[in-house]
Amino acid sequence: MPELPEVETVRQTLNQLIKKKTIEDVVITLPRIIQKPDDVEAFRTMLQGQTFHLVERRGKFLRLLLDDYVLVSHLRMEGRYGMFEKEDPVDKHTHVRFVFTDGSELRYTDVRQFGTMHIFEAGTDLTELPLRQLGPEPLEKNFTPDVLKGRLKSSRAVKTQLLDQTKLVGLGNIYVDEALFSAGIHPETVSSELSDEQIRRLHKCIVRTLADAIAAGGSSVKSYVNGQGEMGMFQQQLNVYGRKNEPCKHCGEPIIRFTVGGRGTHICPRCQPAREVSR
Ligand SMILES: [Zn+2]
Fold this sequence. Notes:
The chain is about 25% helix and about 20% strand.
């Protein structure tokens, strides 16, 4: 599933590709992608004649700003956007096509069909579901160690808490494992029992992991590609995710995999001891 760095990479790419393009028509071949409005035909007519002005992001959601509306799009497992010309053959997994007045098309393709799109009147999307319930953005200046501490007040495992988008947005299974490794924290640590020092370290590692991944264009584990079909390069920098039995880059101990809250989890057992060893 694309996480914050991949969605941010798609945002940056889409922003360049569709800015100032005007929608002539929308072709929807899988109605259940459209969550709002209920009527797919209304979705189509609302967007006809609208021009894209800016692509923003909230957590793992894309916010595509038009004249009168905001299109909120979540890629979920494998959704992706691509630019095409009208005459290009249409892939069987393409479910929504935004046909522009200049003859180009933005196509939404989704093999797993879990992605969603919602339309809101301009200025209303952030205070409505699904965006209303989201936690703070980890890359904004107001995300401090104290804010993180407040979001970690829970008896749940720290990994489970960090994956909860209502507590903090953007982290998924890859980057949560990477951030916890960099911070030297075991993922099953009860989140309210983290020391202030551990929270400071975790805060720094979350911000750095996400920023480094954005700089590398995201990861391409499971064939993830960004909005222009380019593979992200961050998977080469992964320290634990997907590296079961490979030596830890820090201490040489083999990486192990187990599940936390039902999610496959990778750690270095020496760098992330279950109880913190003073060093
Ligand atoms: Zn290690």
